Amino acid sequence: MRFLLAGLTAGLLLLVGCWDMRELEDLAFVTAVAVDRLPSGEVRLVVQAFNPRALAGGTQGAITPSASVPSKCYRNYEARGKTVFAAVRELALKVPKRPYFTQSRVLLFTEGAARRGVAEVLDFFERSVEIRKIIPVFVVRGDVLELLDVPNPHESCPAMRLEGLVREQSRTSFFPVVTFGEFLGMLVSEGQEAYCPVVRAERNPTQKLRPREPLAPAPEPAMEIKVGGTAVFRRDRLVGFLNERESRGLLWAKGKVGGGALVLSLEGDKEVTVDVLRSQTRIRPHLTPYGPKFTVEIREEGNVAEAACPLDLSKLEVVRQLEAAQAAAIKAEVEQALRRAKELKADIFGFGAALHRHYPQEWKKLKQKWSEEVFPYLEVEVKVDAKLRRTGLRSKSLLQEVESRRR
Amino acid sequence: MRMGKKLKDLLVQSKLKRRLAPAPPPLPQEDRKAEKKVWEPGELKQIPISSSLEQNLALVKRVMGGNADFEMREFVLGGGEKRAAIIFMANMVERSQLNRQILENLMFRIPKDQKVDLDFLRDRVITVAEVCEVRDFWEVFSHVTEGCAVLFVDGENRALGLDVRGYERRAIEEPVTESTVRGPRDGFVEDVEENIMLIRRRIKTPNLVMERVTVGRLTRSVVVLAYIKGLVNPALVEEVKKRIAQIDMDAVYGFRYVEEMIIDNPYTFFPQAICTERPDRVCGALTEGRVVILVDTSPFALIVPASLPMLLQTPEDYYHISGISTAIRWLRYLAFIFSVVGSPLYVAISNYHPDMIPARLLLSLAAAREGVPVPAALEAFMMEVAFELLREAGIRLPRQVGQAVSIVGALIIGEAAVRAGLVSPLMVIIVAATGIASFTVPSYELGVPMRLLRFPILFLAATLGLFGVVVGLLAILIHLAGLRSFGLPYLSPLAPLKFGELRDVLVRAPFWAMRTRPETSKRNWFRVSPWGRSQRPEEEHRRES
Amino acid sequence: MVREEGRISALQACGYQISIVLATAILFVPGIVAQKARSDGWLSLLLAFIFGLIVAVISSKLALRFPSQTVIQYAPRILGPFLGKIVGFIYVYYFFYVAYYVQRQFGELMTTAYMQETPIVVFIAILTLLSCYAIYQGLEVICRVNQIVLVIFIPAFFFLLALIAKDIRLDNFLPFLENGWGPPLVGALAPGAWMGEVAVILMLTPFVSDRRRVLRTSVTAVVVLFLCMLVVVVGAIGTMGAEVVARLLFPAFSLYRRIHFATIPILERQDAVFMMIWVAGMLFKLTTFFYAGLLALSQWLGLKTYRPLIFPTGALLAALSLMSWHNISDLVAFSAEVFPLSIDFVNLFLTGLLLLVAACRGLREVNGSPYADGEEVKGSAGAV
């Protein structure tokens, strides 16, 4: 019996092939996937695949091995097809390795693709095991090929650079971070429209055009990748954008601001800048005879980072004044964002979802006409409770002392 | 197996009967002539010692005559005319003792006109501690071949076996295979008597029992069973004795002969008895209620029953602060697991689940793999085989050359292979780390099966990825859980779970916290007296001050 | 070296009861519950918990009436030889039926999520072979390994869930009772059926050394299972939202794929670790059913040992698991609609019926059974 078992097992194992085995060097690790739609309706896929040879040995990976052009650590491929998967498989005609998507860092939609609706192209990405739900989603303004081929020695692979920018998002909070999973969740949930950050390739102002000298180090790159702003979807179609301040307004309302510079303009052209530490938000629906009304309660804490005006921060009333200014600034940002969302008739704030959670019956009545008739005229009250905690290494501002001495 | 043995017994007996059919053989007078006849033990047992010295010596000569190291000394007992003879193996007795305490006494220290018989000699004349009476020739030759001298006296149908054994022994040295930093430095030697001494010196209770059994038809090796009465489960002792009694083979040279004949499951790679050269480890096992088997000519003792957690403990654990021992123990457990799955995990992850590797590491991995001509699985297999080769070569060669092997192998070949692009540098690291992990397994006989099992798991990893690794590990786990060593489940106290005993497995609890004795000795429950805590040194000190 | 069936401790019996439910339940329950009850999924679990307790109590009471026999042996005594045999056969079939269902589920996840190109038969065959090996070694060994597997499985499971705890949003559990108590009740059906599988104690009681604790072990098992399922349902709905979870085939798997740490990227994408521990859990889910089925079958046929049946039955189950469902949609529909009801029928209805009849007829174990009550079991050490 024992031997029978052993024999059976051994036999089975010998019969087992290596169906799913793939050698590392036979994989093309895709780091970024960009989806575009051609006017004909065909899907155009641009993928960025890593080139490990560039890491293995200096110039080996260059197009011509003997040339002194440094090798790039990535290659971009384009493929077209009627559907996403067809395009993915068409890549095999050009890529000598198996495109392997599990390590992809970002998922990009071109503006055109997003305007046509993302649902039909998203199905593949949701169904596929290889695509992770934790990667961030972007809408690309401008040419995606340009974006994916911006050289930069700081993080030479553009996809990885995007990932790095996302990691540093809380330094400005000028764009939302939306993972693919969250994006999908927003697409399907009731009373919540989807949004995602916007990325574009910009001209790099630090580049100076001068004749290239032999042996001179590489010049500053001509282009720069910049993330900022929010793409707003209704259903699954892109309908418009929020600028950077409005994006932060949206994030305030979502309770997702983890940092950023908040500039408070005081009377007389004076500016104090606050370093936002953390924030919390609560959206509360109220039922009134005239329909639902919402309160957005924001609690925020910040430090004074810069005071470009003669202010005595050691005085309590000055701090209170600043706190009020802070609250006003936040409120302004939120209201600005809300105005823009109302214009676009896209409830990216999730007021509908909040109503659904708290008053499901009411929601059922309003569901059909929510985005057309209710949301654009929604009454929203923004209450901000802003706190200043610390003032950095000094209390009085430098300007104040300079002025007092002058006097 | 058992049937075969019985059959053999039957054969031997029938042969004996056929030989014994003609009555006691005539005793011809030629001497010192190599005899063609082969004397079987059973036959010798049948021949009693006769009262005629002549006859006895004649038979002795017939049996032992051809031996160059056999000595026979005939003499006359002092105080009369009675003849006597003493026989012994020349190189196995201590000559001075034989001369002074036996021959001198027998020849000169007997008062005149004394009626001399064997009892008198034993009681009054011979000043040797161990003396025993011998009645047949089987016993005579047993004693002689063991190194005792046998004294025949004319007119007596008995003889005296005198223990004057003396042969060269290796001095007690530091154990080679199990060294500790803080532990005692004495290790067992080949001589079983010395080993008994090493144990006795540590456990000074009359309840420590040493039972002596002889096994092996030709070698008649001494096997000593040691246990502590009152701690050991009597059923266990009975079982061990029964199994040892069933051993019937020509030669027993070392512990492995005994071990292989008495373990529960012959089809396994895993050791079911712990073999150790350290007396302190043996004593620890004795006080846990285990049985220790010492085999003459082997510098190792066997501890039964064994369990896997025990095999992963070292005596060192008990010579350090308990917290430190616990940490080191866990390091060892992890290394133990890593030694099986190290390189298979690498193969499985890189070939089947590259998504598990963080991006940057993955890229450098892929870069390292560029240009390696063989698949990762084969690469790992080659490296593992090379590693095993180096290890084996290092052990077999003399120590000075062995170092050269490791230098050539590890540094030169490894470096050159990486340079040449035959293997990726990471694979060298992984295989080396796996190898080192396997060396941290404290018992050598457990480290070897782990290294061997790595190969099938490597194969599984190459064919089925992490799923294969899990399947392999589960199969090993089921196998281990199915093993028993003398009735003790091999994985106890992990499975079946015995919470109380985990304190010496998951941690090395301080001695004052390990209050109860383990499962193996059920009867006397407390290891530390229940009020033991108050006797902790620092508290005593506090009470005094 | 004759291996007897052996004795298991009450703790091991409890482990057996946990394993018989755990592995598949945590994988599929969130999806089924979210589909039916949406954000009130956790309420469904509460209801299922009550259901599980009822089954646990009924089956333990029945088991304690005949502590030295299995249900196959005493069913004829309760219902008469003919009906009893039929009920016995239903039990036999039930165990095998779940066993091959489990095999298929296992194969489907492996081929969907990890190794798309490997034929499903490979996974099923390997798992079945391992299971046969464990069963060949006997109940004691199954329980021992099961203990170890659970000790690794449950903490690892909770650890992985702790990694996504930071993403749980309580908002996802609102609205509360949007459509009344109906949906949570419907949603409770499947997890309730799963928890009802602890009725396997009917097959185990004769081998438990401390039989008075049978009720306690069953209840403990149900509590543990409830906690595990609750945690995974709360985790899944809390992080992904009921709408997303309801669409997923393997919600727990998707959940682990969402572990996300921007600062510690090494913790991301480690769902293959989940697969590793899940294989172990699945092996024991299969083994527990397979063993119970083999034991039941051998007793139903009046055999002395089940050992000769292991391989033929294993092969049969593997074949059945491959042929019974055409595709994954078939399987999913089956596990949501047919499976819970059929299991409830056996675990609640049949067991309840047996207990009722036995109670009405006043049937109890008479003394003189092979294992008299209160018999002490010898320690394993040295008792060979």
From TrEMBL, chain A:
One of its GO terms (biological process) is spore germination. Keywords: Germination, Lipoprotein, Membrane, Palmitate, Signal. The keyword Lipid metabolism does not apply. Residues 20-200 form the Spore germination protein N-terminal domain. It is found in: Membrane. GO terms for cellular component: membrane. Pfam families: Spore_GerAC (PF05504), Spore_GerAC_N (PF25198). Residues 229-392 form the Spore germination GerAC-like C-terminal domain. Its main location: membrane. It is a lipid-anchor. InterPro entries: GerAC_N, Spore_GerAC-like, Spore_GerAC-like_C, Spore_GerAC_C_sf. Belongs to the GerABKC lipoprotein family. This is Ger(X)C family spore germination protein.
UniProtKB/TrEMBL annotation, chain C:
Keywords: Germination, Membrane, Transmembrane, Transmembrane helix, Transport. Coiled coil: none annotated. It comes from the Bacteria. The chain crosses the membrane at residues 12-33, 45-66, 78-100, 120-136, 148-165, 185-207, 219-242, 275-297, 309-326, 338-359. Pfam families: Spore_permease. It is a multi-pass membrane protein. The keyword Cell wall biogenesis/degradation does not apply. GO terms for biological process: spore germination. Its main location: membrane. It is found in: Membrane. GO terms for cellular component: membrane. Belongs to the amino acid-polyamine-organocation (APC) superfamily. Spore germination protein (SGP) (TC 2.A.3.9) family. This is Spore gernimation protein. The lineage of its organism: Bacteria, Bacillati, Bacillota, Clostridia, Thermoanaerobacterales.
